[in-house]
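Long-time lurker. I teach an intro course on protein structure, and each term I like to show students one example going from raw sequence to a predicted 3D structure in token notation. This year I'd like something fresh instead of my usual example. Would anyone be willing to generate the tokens for the chain below so I can use it in lecture? Attribution to the forum is fine with me.
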Amino acid sequence: MSLITPNIHREIQDGLQDPIGFWERAAKELPWLRSWDRVFEWDFPTFRWFVGAQTNLAYTSIDYHVERGRGGHTAIVYINERGERSLFTYAQMLYEVKRLAAALRGQGIEKGDRVTIDMPTSPQAILLMLACVRIGAIHSVVFAGFGSKALADRIAASLAVSAALRSLKDSSRPRSSAMPSS
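-- Reply from a regular --
Happy to contribute to a lecture. Here you go:
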């Protein structure tokens, strides 16, 4: 008995036989701000997919679903190591991401700025990452385990203009600080 359904098996075979065509068909299922000029470009030793295309992953991840009537559908199910469970719908995510994006803009974060996120793996970290993407800020994520010196080195190396750091009192709620300009 196969664990792979016939439809999935057919998709796998299509992808193996024509990878560029497979990914082009898959990409046409997603919203794009601008379509691509070429699906794939290989210039050894590098390659690029969907050359010339533009999209916004925050929009694709959230807004797209809300606009299609799926705002009340569950987007994230989170269960932590203590067994606590929380659910986020697409509509809740959209509200929170817009709120966080506005807060980032209020701190002066703009498109192209770098933000370091030091938070535990959680829905709040995902929402903050999506807020960065929404405004075009580049985010660097540090998932715990670093001492203050190692964390400071990573923030400096990323050229971050801001950092969202976990609070010592409540590691699930970020606190943000603007980084000094160099």
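Some talking points for your students: Residues 167-182 have pLDDT under 50 and may be disordered. The chain has two domains: 7-51, 57-178.
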